[in-house]
Amino acid sequence: ARLWAPAGALAALACCLRARRAAPGELRPEARGHLELKQVQVVFRHGARSPLRQLPGADQVEWNPQLLEVPPQTQFDYTVTDLGGGPKPHSPYDSQYSRTTLKGGMLAGQLTKVGMQQMFALGERLRKNYVEDVPFLSPTFDPQEVFVRSTNMLRNLESTRCLLAGLFQRQKEGPVVIHTAEADSEVLYPNYQSCQNLRTRTRGRKEAATSQPQISKDLKEVKEGMGLDSSVEVDFFILLDNVAAEQAHSLSSCPTLQRFAQVVEQRAVDTALYVLQLEDREGLQMAVGPFLHILESSLLTAVDPATPPSQRRKLHLYATHDVTLIPLLMTLGIFDHKWPPFAADLTVELYQHQPSKEWFVQLYYNGEEQVPRGCPDRLCPLDQFLKAMSAYTLSPEKYHALCSQAQAVGSEE
């Protein structure tokens, strides 16, 4: 917890910023030229991969291991440590994926050449934004400038490698270290395994969602079109997982699945929104509150004049998942009701207005400017942004307390 909790001074700084009168929401056009970029945080989904589970039925795509070929331009050496700098933890998820062999011979959940190219392209876009157009980052990787964090899954670690290769054109001035966490303490995705209250709260919602009239009707129609018996356990998450993977690699299974691709995505989104409801503030807090706390802590560290230069990073990278981005976008009030595609990115820029010394935040989702909840404009005063985030942000202590509430209730029954 020490590694992702702000110090007491940072917490006090957050209160000070929130209590202070906000800077004007609208800066005059001539004043925007005095903004200086101070920090960038990028939250991204991994690149295209093989499905996590193959669909039943005769019309199955062949996932050839040749799809795993590594493009030379994406190669970039890196090491993985835990959050304290120790050895890379065991990955139970990778162990699970290794037990599922898809038709054609590829394992489940593997980053493909297409996915590697997507991440390299994202890295090149970031290079254009923060190296070429604005000389913010060094053109070569510098560990004093960049902090890299990823979930402990190979597809995310490899996606990060490809992004860094594109961003820094495979040039580095020091070792590339990717930090990760044990599965039971990971907060870069909703941790249903460790947070019992979250698991208990959402347990019945997924099943209840499939019983909703329109979702149930569409699921029945898709399954019948695919020739699947009604007893076959398939939901819109599994269907979308396969549709998205097939489309990314220009592959096609049954015509029915392709015909219903748009319906499949929309019903998967509807199901996700039924499981993590916007009205359920505590549920969203447990889903992404600790991650929001990490983002907030990085912002506060950057604006705190007491932060030593050795602890300042210009760029923070977080390799996450679609199930991270959906609740994160919901809490920020910018979810577009579309499933986050492979290599999707949410970018948080921190600026200081030099004449007034006021701080501002600007958000981008997949390269498009966003106006987050509680903000008057796309360029949001930092105190207003933090105030809006505070409705969902959880410190490690509050997160663990909230997650264990279900255990307390259970012990009384």
Task: Please tell me about this protein's structure.
This protein has 16 helices and nine strands. With 413 residues, the protein is α/β, with parallel strands linked by helices. Strands 1, 3, 5, 6, 7, 8 and 9 form a seven-stranded mixed beta sheet that branches. Strands 2-4 form a two-stranded parallel sheet. Helix 4 (113-133) packs parallel to helix 5 (154-168), helix 9 (236-248) crosses helix 11 (261-275) and helix 12 (281-303) packs across helix 13 (322-332). It is globular, with a radius of gyration of 22 Å. It starts with 7 loop residues before the first helix and ends with a helix. 42% of the residues are buried. Mean pLDDT is 91; it is low at 19-25 and 407-413. Its EC number is 3.1.3.2. It is an enzyme of class 3 (hydrolase). One of its GO terms (molecular function) is lysophosphatidic acid phosphatase activity.
Q: What spatial form do the alpha-carbon principal axes imply?
A: globular
> How many distinct helices?
16
Mean pLDDT across the residues is 91
The termini sit apart by 31 Å
Residue windows where pLDDT falls under 50 for at least 5 positions: 19-25, 407-413
- Profile the largest sheet: 7 strands, mixed
Gyration radius, rounded? 22 Å
DSSP strand tally: 9
